[in-house]
Predict the structure.
Amino acid sequence: MTARTTAAHGVRGKPDAAKAKRAVLIGLDWGTTSLRAYLFDAAGEVLDTRISTAGIMNLPVPAEEGGFDAAFDEACGVWLAQGSALPVLAAGMVGSAQGWVSAPYVETPASEDALVASIVKVRAACGVELAVVPGVLEPGALPNVMRGEETQIFGALGAQAGAHAAPASRPAAQAQTQAVAQTLIGLPGTHAKWVVMEGASIARFYTFMTGEVYAALTAHTILGRTMKRPVVPDTAAFLRGVTVAREHGCAGVLATAFSTRTLGLTDQLAADEQPDYLSGLLIGHELAGLEAVLARRDVELAACAPRLIGADALCERYRLALAQFGCGGAQIVHRATERGLWRIAVRAGLVVGAGQTA
Amino acid sequence: MTARTTAAHGVRGKPDAAKAKRAVLIGLDWGTTSLRAYLFDAAGEVLDTRISTAGIMNLPVPAEEGGFDAAFDEACGVWLAQGSALPVLAAGMVGSAQGWVSAPYVETPASEDALVASIVKVRAACGVELAVVPGVLEPGALPNVMRGEETQIFGALGAQAGAHAAPASRPAAQAQTQAVAQTLIGLPGTHAKWVVMEGASIARFYTFMTGEVYAALTAHTILGRTMKRPVVPDTAAFLRGVTVAREHGCAGVLATAFSTRTLGLTDQLAADEQPDYLSGLLIGHELAGLEAVLARRDVELAACAPRLIGADALCERYRLALAQFGCGGAQIVHRATERGLWRIAVRAGLVVGAGQTA
């Protein structure tokens, strides 16, 4: 897969007539603040990528004035103009109540077939029909929701179905009572998610507001006032934070976060170590919380081989932090979004998958 | 004690010549964003109170241009002009590195005598000498610091030395091995503190950034976007948050905080319930963390009768939350700051205490 992108007035990527003629599918990863459009060939390879800032909360014109159509045309019009009518599959917040069409949540346990069965369609003004993947809801005392991640998750499974399958997590007690393999998938970010797959279904998941809380603490509390950004990320300070969360974290993050300040006041943590220390603290608390909720179902974090989906640098930080928790087998999965869009499109019959015949 | 205050150009409170003549001490609670000045008579009763916004980060003119003198004159000049030379005792951030004079921290265990022995003096331009109470530092992997609270804490002890002493906490295991009574004191607020007293010494303490994190989450994350402030605080929503933190909090507050949003998305939490629910969640996590750190030293939170120092409405919320943790004996202590300033001034020999002779 190649993703060629160039910048031009909010949309990056130049059209290419030859590529458009080989195209069989447009896939959209349409979130709150961005729209990423992928053009696929018949082998599921990405021919072209266009990236726009026209997320559903940042449309070029208001939604009620045709904002979704405008954003879609801006991102994909050149492809549609040059090729034949292409099927379009979209995932993410575009299917939320604030999106182009509401694609109600599928409840856990959520299989790929359940997602496909709940796809909702919307017709653009240009006549093209978009198939929108629903999000997933886990009901309960603390409900959890995802939109977009479900597509990445099935993309990550797809990636692993290939050459080098990672060992699934080994649930200590459940291994004897059930044959279904469990897999742990982590999606670090603003609202980090940790997903337990049972077989090829999303069984349950947890959301940690780690990225957003980090941003709020550094920009809007006393902790940010003494911080200086280091020139390069300080891995030692990061790991120190992880260790403090793991070993001294029982008072909770509301308490340990203050040590960013007091270690500074007592000359034990330099200003330019404080950002990465706090990042390590928060990610350490996230992993300690994950460890605790997994343990309640007799799954040992250290025995898991999680797959990580997200930006490389952030996934690498999580890989280092996981190792502090004895979890050394984490693997970073690339291009999960593109793979997931393709995989669901095949399952939904929008395209014919490799190895299948029309 | 009466605290008569009126507003006038940042300083509230009118001078009274008769009162000034009976005065024996000025006490200052001088923090980051406010300066509260108390005029005491020989019985330790507050004759007059003046409240100013001239905290050390909000002086009327910059510190290097005499800002501390200006703020002090503005708050206390009328008292000093009318009475004889009065001793002045100050507590709070005025003794920090950014204050009028640096009063280095006293380390735990910190007795009142240790505080008094480390008082630092500074002479104002008007010739009056101020005695500044030091803060307290608990060294360790997660250091803790306080400035100002130490004075309130000894004030709360003083209040209890009177008529109705609350039962001290009953440490389950330590009761047999040591005779020193332990008392738990809570100071809710921006940076909430929980202090374990052993006898009349500050043995150890914990800081929770609960108030500041609440403000950051509501103003600067997605959680605030769906919130509406209720007309009156919603106690049921608050207690629901406390219960969720207590019963489903093992993933940590980074995870449970997101339920403020997902319960809203699933129509289980109205917009005007969300602020108090989140407040309950955070205070619940604070108390769960406190319970955990106390338990490591065999102290059971439910068996404690904490004293609470702070704004009445906030202390009342904590009293309700503590009851959810089985801790029903919390008492709100009033006027801890004034009592503490008086008590330390007596101990320091600045004034002659009731029952003493000159």
